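Pasting as-is:
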Amino acid sequence: MPTFFDEMYADGATTVREHYREFQAWLSEQSPETIASKRAEADLIFRRVGITFAVYGDDAGTERLIPFDIISRIITAREWEGMEAGLVQRVTALNMFIHDIYHDQNIVKAGIMPAEQVFRNAQYRPEVQGISVPSDIYAHIAGIDLVRAGQGEFYVLEDNLRVPSGVSYMLEDRKMMMRLFPELFARYKVAPVAHYPDMLLDNLRSVAPVGVADPTVVVMTPGMYNSAYFEHAFLAQQMGVELVEGKDLFVNDNFVYMRTTRGPKRVDVIYRRIDDDYLDPLSFKADSTLGVPGLLSVYRAGRITLANAIGTGVADDKSIYPFVPEMIRFYLSEEPILNNVPTWQCRKKDDLAYTLAHLPELVVKEVHGAGGYGMLVGPASTKAEIEDFRQRIIARPEGYIAQPTLALSACPTYVESGIAPRHIDLRPFVLSGKTVSMVPGGLTRVALKEGSLVVNSSQGGGTKDTWILEE
């Protein structure tokens, strides 16, 4: 009997869960040759359209395909209903928190959030203190990572509020499944996701500066060498807006303009895929060549909307994560619908002592870490790796949190040896503007290495199509 929740099977490998029965029956009819052929076709198409992921410092090459698995992850309508309500609640509270810390700071004054956790946070931006943004929305696009553990309960693993990526893979995975296996979509009523770019554009237009009736929206990229450049170009093309780099924009008379072949065109909303530090060399990193000199002054004047807002990253720092349930209670007077994973904050004396005493059984993360880097998975680490990490934690305890090693749910996945369970997570994409909305589903990431709990693409993970059933 597995110690993890199996998405397809109710008792290990014999009883198929009801919502997977049609899929499993179809799967059993497929020959290994058919599957191999379809997987090769998917790889060819993905490579042809340029769906690659850059891996920094990778000796094998700068770009690779993210492996795509043809066994979809299926979630019932009832399960999704609960997740959706929890996601709306959580992102609403996070937006209220970010507005609060850059204005009245009531959560700090109430003693719920320690001041040093906020104002000494590397992602806190004093430059935007007191600046008003349209509709008080800061995290216009949020990617909330969910994991299923225990008896099947969903937990929030982390909040991604700066420049969350992956939505292009959600959309392309669905297109690929519909292309390769149209017969499956005759057996299942799967909620659509293809309208996400339209929702995103409507959302971005809804938060344009006050008084702008027909806003011009652009997607701002660091350039073609960025790891997520495919996604930047993809979303711009899907929304029908311009993809720009910092050098394509300039500030004049406290407005932002885009250089075009017909002359300058005013820009009202920038969906930026560039970190805060690189946005404006006059206000942040002086040597940045990616940003727009003077952008912050236009932002201060309320004449440009940046999505996500400057300073949003303070709310997705892993040292802030443990406080989100209290944010929900404080701002919304509600109990959290989605639970956090239990977390020890190494900056606390007792939590530090517990963490150091239990390193072989815990997952330890850098509070500013991302992409699966800067973390220790105790049960999968050698004694030498654990001792090395112990010294790092002792030297800088405030830089780490620890969590139990969750038995992430697993979904059958095609690997070299055939079909085998592999651990997965889910990243739904939540849009905040005049309303909070999302398409049904998200990006399911899968850890392709046997026993691995690290699903990140940069660490060798793959993706699956995520189906939310309509009934």
